[in-house]
Amino acid sequence: MQNNVIITNTNAPMRQDFAIIANWVKPKGKVLDLGCGDGTLLKYLRESLSVKGYGVEKDDVNWLACLQNGTNVIQMDLEDGLSGFEDQSFDTVILSQTLQAMHNTEEIVLEMLRVGREIIVTFPNFGYWRNRIQILTGNMPVSKTLPYQWYDTPNVHLCTIKDFDNFCNNYKIEVLERKVITDGSDVSIMPNFLGNLAMYRLKASGK
Amino acid sequence: MQENNSIGIIQAQTAHFNAPLTLKSGAILPQFDLVYETYGTLNADKSNAVLICHALSGNHHVAGKYAESDKNAGWWDNLVGPNKPLDTNKFFVIGLNNLGGCHGTTGPASINPSTNKPWGSAFPIVTVEDWVNSQALLLDYLGIQQLAAVIGGSLGGMQALQWTLAYPNRVRHALVIASAPNLTAQNMAFNEVARQAIITDPEFHGGDFYAHGVVPRRGLRIARMLGHITYLSDDVMGEKFGRKLRSGEIKYSFDVEFEMESYLRYQGDKFAGEFDANTYLRMTRALDYYDPALAFNNDLSAALQQATAEFLVVSFTSDWRFSPARSREIVKALLDNERTVSYAEVTAAHGHDAFLMPDAHYHNILRNYLSKVEV
């Protein structure tokens, strides 16, 4: 059942993550949150920005939590793509701290760009200095943002900020905005070394 | 489920309608009765009514018993009752037998007032649209303007969907379970085999078997056996019966050898003894014909534009007769129209039958959804 594990990180940096996402979402816009967990983000966006939100969630327990907090939630596996959603039918499509757990990583980002006019992708930066130190001392990193052992982690595609920048460059994805934060604070100097959580607002080039 | 949250002893009621009803086919029913049951209490502003639409072989007896000695309670008794997922402390629940049925509502076995004989083959073909129209008349009769929710599985889910299209202002929530926006060719093919089994039974007499004092039992039996195969998953049949032998050893005969055969024959016999063949033909035809997208150039999104209700769509992973993919078509059409919709794909082994099973997660979904429905 490892595939059912969805990261629903509810510690302090996640709240910060919400506030930044809210700044990037159009008030009263139409938002799709992929791997929406218990629907907390959508609830927050609904209450603060009156968005029309839909969540996609695979896990039964999270799905039920979404229903309980009044979030529209579609049960499906993101690994199958987004064929149930029309091209450019959402103002914003969000993938919050789920990218690293996806197998079809390229496909989901491209699908998000197809369905959303803009997309928001956030992920734990594997290049964060604490992770690097743990690697240097000979262990796979375990931290608040990566709270798993190597043998039980759902994270299969961890990347650094530099890796993701290259990915966007290769796929001609336009980076509209990038924020890097550590423990709730902005990181502007050496983000790939000092930043814990990377957040991107993106759109397909030429749109 | 515990005995203490049973709805208890209930009684069926009959509503008589004198005004002629024009059916989708153009045929006119001069007058008709609808048999129904209700559970719970209609509140003062009549805002807590929930309609349950039945599937192929269902009827108005959804919950409770007619007498303590009844062996079985209603067909969806695990769902409906005090503190059950569809809580009769909160809701006023209505179950009815659809037109063309054989449990008291006017149908092929009823007396045709113009001949004083059973309708038989002369009873018109009824459709999902006709059923929903007649259900709306029943609501009028009960003084209910708007349903808090309509709920149905399979063919019942089609009626729930149709409610949101035909009467968008009269329904706030639709729970469409193990259903589809139309039948696939394969699904219709099963219906055709079932009908052929009935129609070619020598005792069918073109549908007018009542006058001959016989019933096309063989046909009905085979139709039901076929149905049962398609309502279960391969896995569940394997688990339930596997290759188990009835008597423990092979007898080299065409009698019941395997447990599975015993089950199918039992189900077939039971059904043939209590269900009307003409009703079965009409129920399967209603399934075949339902296709709300047809009038919209096969564009389901365009068809569902009329729906304004909030939706819960549920499918079951092992249901191959009404597969999750078909439910997802409904969900997509609702999303295209920016409707309020949630969709659950329940992991269940029981195939199409899963929608009637008291699976804990499935019932939790319904319980939670219904608890949010305002009355």
Q: Radius of gyration of chain A, Cα only, in angstroms?
A: 16 Å
CATH class category label of chain A:
Alpha Beta
Q: What number is the mean pLDDT of chain B?
A: 97
Q: On the 0-100 scale, what is the average pLDDT of chain A?
A: 92
| Whole-number total of structural domains of chain A | 1
Taken in chain order, the helices and strands of chain B follow as EEEEEEEEEEHEHEHHHHHHEHEH
**Number of extended strands of chain A:** 8
- Biggest sheet strand order of chain B reads 1-4-8-5-11-12-13-14
Major sheet of chain A: 8 strands, mixed
Largest sheet of chain B: 8 strands, mixed
Percent of residues of chain B in beta strands? Answer: 15-25%
Strand order of the largest sheet of chain A: 3-2-1-4-5-8-6-7
What is the tally of helical segments of chain B?
10
Radius of gyration of chain B: 20 Å
Separate helix tally of chain A = 7
H/E element sequence of chain A: HEHEHEEHEHHEEHE
Class derived from helix and strand content of chain B:
alpha/beta
Distance between the termini of chain B: 26 Å
Query: Tell me, what's the shape of chain A?
Result: globular
Shape of chain B: globular
